[in-house]
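re: that chain from earlier
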Amino acid sequence: MDEPLFGGASRREVMIERFANAFIGTAASATLAAGLVQGVRRGEPLHALLGLCCALFAAVEVRLVNWYRRGDLEPYFKHVIFALAAAIALLCIVANMYYFARA
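^ sequence. v structure.
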């Protein structure tokens, strides 16, 4: 098996990456489910489309984290990955507010 390009990851980094993957995956899945439910309930298919967009962005994030963990990405991509995770979390929060806070 090939060694990672930039050395091994510390235990702390692996735990942070796993937590980020789990949090973003859970938030995007919940947003997708809420979008589907609200889309069917209110008859607005755009809710489901917004939930699908959140889930697809989360899939890209998970893939980037996996590439980073294997050593295929350079170390400065860590900041890009965390910024993307924050943007996805914000997108999920705004989408859920849009679903449930509308009168």
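Residues 11-101 form one domain.
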